[in-house]
Amino acid sequence: MPQYTLFISSYERRIRYPKSYDLPDVEAARQVALRVAQVFVEVVPYWNDLSPDQQDSFMVEVDDEGGQTILTVPFREAQKPDPLGSPHQDNEAPQG
Questions:
Q1: What are the pLDDT digits (tens) for 35-58?
Q2: Is 61 helix (H, G, I), strand (E, B) or coil?
């Protein structure tokens, strides 16, 4: 399985997520990136104090094994309500 590395990124910094994931495909990597963004928004106490422009500057970038960024997931996508009305908690990040 391909290995993906995640980075929390804003206009100012890019910080490597402490863990890499072995996942079957890019869509699985996207789901993990969304979950990472959701958790970040939930646990950062000052998130709601940031302006919309500041919030929009945050994203999760996903790099493949070669170090190429193959996917960028804006945090705002993680804040959208689930169209099915259920939380994404069944999409826990796999251990890898």
A1: 999 999 999 989 999 999 999 999
A2: strand
Instruction: Output the six-digit token pair for 74.
Output: 């804006």
Contact 7/16 with Cβ under 8 angstroms? yes
Give the C-alpha separation, 4 to 44, whole Å: 24
Per-residue buried b or exposed e for 30-49, using 16+ beta carbons within 10 Å of the residue's own CB: bbbbbbbbbebbeeeeeeee
Question: How many angstroms separate the CA atoms of 31 and 91, rounded?
Answer: 7
Q: What are the residues whose beta carbons fall under 8 Å from the beta carbon of 26, sequence distance 6 or more?
A: 62, 70, 71
pLDDT given at position 29: 97
Domain locations in the chain? Answer: 3-78
